[in-house]
Amino acid sequence: MSLRPVTSESLPVRIVLIACAVGFLGLFLLVPLGLVFVEALRRGGSVFLAALTDRHALSAIRLTLFAAAIAVPLNTLFGIAAAWLITKFRFKGRTWLLALIDLPFAVSPVIAGLVWALIFGAQGWLGPWLAEHDIRIIFAVPGIVLATLFVTFPFVARELIPVMEMQGTDEEEAALTLGAGGWQIFRRVTLPNIRWGLLYGVLLCNARAMGEFGAVSVVSGHIRGKTNTLPLHIEVLYNEYQFSAAFAAATLLALLALLTLGLKSLLELRLGSHSSIRH
Amino acid sequence: MKPKTILLLLATPVVFLGLAACDASKDSGPKVHLLNVSYDPTRELYEDYNTLFAQHWKEQTGETVEIEASHGGSGKQARAIMDGLEGDVATLALAYDTDAIAAETGILPENWQSRLPHNSSPYTSTIVLVVRKGNPKGIRDWPDLIQPGIQVVTPNPKTSGGARWNYLAAWAYAKRAGDGSDGSARDFLRALFKNVPVLDTGARGATTTFAQRKIGDVFLSWENEAFLIEKEFPGETEIVVPSISILAEPAVAVLDKNAEKHGTSQVAQAYLEYLYSPQAQDLIGKHYYRPRSEETAAKYADVFPKLNLVTIDEEFGGWKAAQATHFADGGVFDQIYTP
């Protein structure tokens, strides 16, 4: 008599379970993603191209890249510093700092936008002073960058903290006893250990920075060709009944998502095969 | 990954930043920039008008003017101007929103509405009912909206100018239909808003709710927006003209202090004045707004149905009074609307 392994189910159960999982994935991930491309190309390639090379579309793309180009490196630096501090040292207020880092995850992006409006708006705290010196923060590019910075703040730190927590401080301590300096330890010991977490954090941070809608919408002022980011540009097109153009612009964000995932897998495969035993 | 690689990864976005900055600084030619802060349904009108005006201005002065536009719910846009959105002109859905800017910030004088002809409104519109093709629910006039099982789509009167016109048009009807008391009008509106499944923040959002997402049986809409739906979604909707409606007068104004700061006072003034020119009035008619000029209006007479229109001044004693009674915090709208 053959014994059924306890870890495997009977064939029908397996089929049902797999069908459920695949069906769910298809319905909630693949179909919507596919629809974006189908809708975008519905009126043909020339409409698609025209939508992407439109003056306002180009400026929206430029602004989106610009905001991400500032937010991502800054939040990367911050994330590394914060994760280093939180995992390698024990100090008073550590849990409090941890909670603070999570704040942008916890509050709605709209609040994040309104906060900036309250501080920098014409009737906000700093409004009169800014007006006097002719500095424009909200309804201009700096406001968009600030909002993006705020919402993407926790991504890198959040990815790094568990990784660094798991590694503990043994290796750093060993390096210390061998006479390494602080920067040397960070560069030769810590950084190589956290590279995957870091990379993943940076990718997620970038994806969110480019895709953020809520917070940016509050501070943007929706001036076409000037303060519309790509997600806002999509909304404008949709509101103007230019559905194909809206979906064409949406394909850029969808492609960004696919690229993010592809890049991550690729890097893991290539670098993982010959240098890492950890990941 | 080597630390160098990480530094490289970090450096890439910085290079991008440089490129973006260079690229952005490139397009600073000898141009005048004008920012028009407007409400939702004027997108198409001003897109065409901006081209028309830019040509006119070029011929007149040789100067190239580039007009930027920002659209959204009228109240929301007024809020943005108060918060520092530095528009040179405001072309909002109703005078009250511009009044609020004047009162709260002093960006423009309180008597702004007397500075241009016809109460500073170069075009008017009204509120009509839009129903699905063939009018399956048999909606003919205002009282049909409060029947049980009818879903009415309108944006939120707190944030949308069009929605306030909707509300007041319904009120004008209700005052005449019942015993003429405020109480019966109030009951009518309470019943009407009970039939409203979603309140969008702006007119355009409500339009997409009704036309694109197919929610609701009847849509209280700007007349121009109703025509636009027929154009964008041919054969799907019908316009029902109610027995009575309101004369909606969207008003335009130069935002003096902003324009002075940008050195655009002259072009901003010209931008609004040119709205009254025959060419612009014709464009206005083409975009389904009712032209102010009688000549142009005659040309479009068969487009716009004649109907009984009340005005905000005669019926409600002006926007300030209407706002205070109906839309202020704790006003009639707050009392009758319980989501």
From TrEMBL, chain A:
Summary of subunit composition and partner proteins: The complex is composed of two ATP-binding proteins (CysA), two transmembrane proteins (CysT and CysW) and a solute-binding protein (CysP).
Pfam family, one: BPD_transp_1
Bilayer disposition of the protein: Multi-pass membrane protein
Identification of the protein by name: Sulfate transport system permease protein CysW
PANTHER family in the cross-refs: SULFATE TRANSPORT SYSTEM PERMEASE PROTEIN (PTHR30406), SULFATE TRANSPORT SYSTEM PERMEASE PROTEIN CYSW (PTHR30406:SF1)
Entries under PROSITE patterns matching the protein: ABC_TM1
Residues annotated as domain ABC transmembrane type-1: 61-264
Keywords: Cell inner membrane, Cell membrane, Membrane, Sulfate transport, Transmembrane, Transmembrane helix, Transport
Molecular function GO terms recorded: ABC-type sulfate transporter activity
Its biological purpose: Part of the ABC transporter complex CysAWTP (TC 3.A.1.6.1) involved in sulfate/thiosulfate import. Probably responsible for the translocation of the substrate across the membrane.
Domain of life of the source: Bacteria
Location of the protein in the cell: Cell inner membrane
Major location category of this protein: membrane
TM regions (residue ranges): 12-38, 58-85, 97-125, 137-157, 197-223, 243-263
Species of provenance: Haloferula luteola
Cellular component GO terms held in the UniProt record: plasma membrane
Automatic annotation (TrEMBL), chain B:
Matches recorded under NCBIfam families: 3a0106s03 (TIGR00971), PRK10752.1 (NF008022), PRK10852.1 (NF008106)
InterPro entries with a match to the protein in the record: Sulphate/thiosulphate_BS, Thiosulph/SO4-bd
Name used for this protein in its record: Sulfate transport system substrate-binding protein
Sequence similarity: Belongs to the prokaryotic sulfate-binding protein family.
Organism for this UniProt entry: Haloferula luteola
Main location: periplasm
GO cellular component, one term: periplasmic space
PROSITE patterns: PROK_SULFATE_BIND_2, PROKAR_LIPOPROTEIN
Alphabetized PANTHER family for the sequence: SULFATE-BINDING PROTEIN
Localization per Swiss-Prot or TrEMBL: Periplasm
Keywords: Periplasm, Signal, Transport
Protein origin, superkingdom: Bacteria
Pfam families given in the database record: SBP_bac_11
Keyword Transcription regulation listed: no
UniProt-listed GO biological process terms: sulfate transmembrane transport
GO MF annotation: an example: sulfur compound binding
Signal sequence, start to end: 1-20
